[in-house]
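Meet today's protein:

…
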Amino acid sequence: MIRKWTWPLGLCLAFALTAEAGEYETVSPDGKLRVEVRTGGGTDFEVWYHGERVLRPSPAGMHLSDGTWVGGGEVTSARKNRVRETIDVVVGKNRTLREAYNELVLSYGKDYDLVVRAYDEGWAYRFVTRFDKEITISQEDAEYRFAFTPTVYFPECDAHTSPERDQSGEVHQIHQGYRNFERLYKVYASPQEIPAGRFSVSPVLFERPGTAYKFVVTEADTYDYPGLYMEAAGEDAMRGKWAGYPKRVMDGDPSNPHYWYSNHLVIEWEDYIARTEGARTFPWRVMVVSDDDKTLLNNELVYMLAEPCRLEDTSWIQPGKSAWEWWHKAVLEGVDFPVGNKHLSLQLYKYYVDWASRNGIEYMTLDAGWQMDYIKELCDYARRRNVKILVWTWASCALENPAGWIRQMHECGVSGAKIDFFERNDQVAMRWARKMAEELARYKMVAVFHGCPVPTGLNRTYPNVMNYEAVRGAECNFWENTITPEYHTRFPFIRSLAGPEDYTPGGMRNVTPEEFRPRDLDSVPPMNMGTRSHVLSMYVIFDHWIGYLCDSPTEYDKYPDILDYLSHVPAVWDKTLPLDARLGEYIVMAKRTGDDWYVGGMTNWTPRTVEVDFSFLSKGKTYRATVFKDKPVSGDRPKEYVCETLAVDRHTKLKLDMARGGGFAIRLAEE
């Protein structure tokens, strides 16, 4: 539900227009952000924040194959809207959102409009076209010419082309930069330092040196259009970049018996980026603004800009936590049946279901290797124990299997799908996510998108999509040593602005960076860096509407206090309250569901002491706090932790020491 109050601009046109023809502006409700638009021979933006110029004149527009320049015409009318509304969230980290913005709408004759919105949280623009025929977009202009030299947090794509063998054995050269959405951040002191030819996925964060100001560029409400990459564009400037429309893909022949198990990587592109209907809205180009790092941890501008929920009935959408066998290689200790990824069986999965049922875990996810012959029996078994089954599959199978894979899973009693390998974000691939979300919703099934593009708000339009990978998650411990506390204290400020992630936390195999070795063996679980308390804090700090418990049930059973915490910690929240944070250094955050609060804290490799001020708690109430925290030795022995209980109220201030790679997690229940 959306409750909205608007004041139409036609009543205050003088407010909408500046003194000079061809110059317009809109200002955020708090007055801190000002966006100026100049038109005539092109459309440019200029932006101020706290009275300081952020962007020099920066062009925006689209070029069509017939020569039409969207944004190049003359403005024939202008109007403004003042909007204040409350948005009810189906699943997320806040039950409701207050959306407040001032909007400028410029009409360029009868063919198209430019819509500009200024929020306290940032600003955005999009084009809305009204052409009466299909259009082809050759290229888009979306530049950000900074008025200072920004530090760039750049989730850089792979730069090379490499041979890939398709399912039939044929080898193709694939540009790796257009297929991988799980990027680390390279930090450049300026756009000029980014090597020629390199580009990144979005969001991208820009920092104004010597200040607290951060600016994050991303997109929202992207459908039937390629996703946003970014590249350097001259002195102190960045611009958007888009994959071409696919001309030829691997395994493109449906008669190929392997067609249903392919990620259809692109071999050749057209010389245009999109072909689409002429009357439509285009993606929002978004810039989040912040003068305090912690505000980035609760900025939901992408969600607010997305198309509202299309589902009339959302009562069947259930968030929760999931057991899962893949990360720990299906290794169970002390059981009397074969275990490991080579021995996946109905008996093994029933064990996971029984464990999930005993501990209040809502889901069990079956990853690669499950067999169709026992799925219905397993679903029937799980349903009687109040556990829902999710199954992994290739995206191409869910999309194109003529036997109707989604319908078939629904008939077996499967509650949702973990859909993998649509690691593209050209126009065709961006249609896939919406198509799969819609089809799954038709059968009242939820989705976890894995090996997928960065989200752009589809989780608002189709809230049955619970998680998106598009993050360098815990599984990367199989292959590399980059998944560190430094990364954990970086991506929530950047990637999480786009939407929920599928990091899959919960590893109990904690080691120091000196001890860590990547490990991908059939029957040996991987290691993970960061202390035990650092891991537990992820269930508060990270955004995932299905929260995975990636380690083995028999491993969690060794720690009854941890298992009790994991059984109770919610996956979605009524309120999120960042308490203190600094990009790449530390995060302290409180979240509430019902009457219970949780507080999570994590640090990078630097030990530090923080003070948690509990003044956010209700007046006149005392809470029983269960605190998981580091020991003094946890930096060197990261499996070591302390669990203690104490009484707190809104007057309590608690100092907590975090070891290197450490953290803490607190559950607060009313006494």
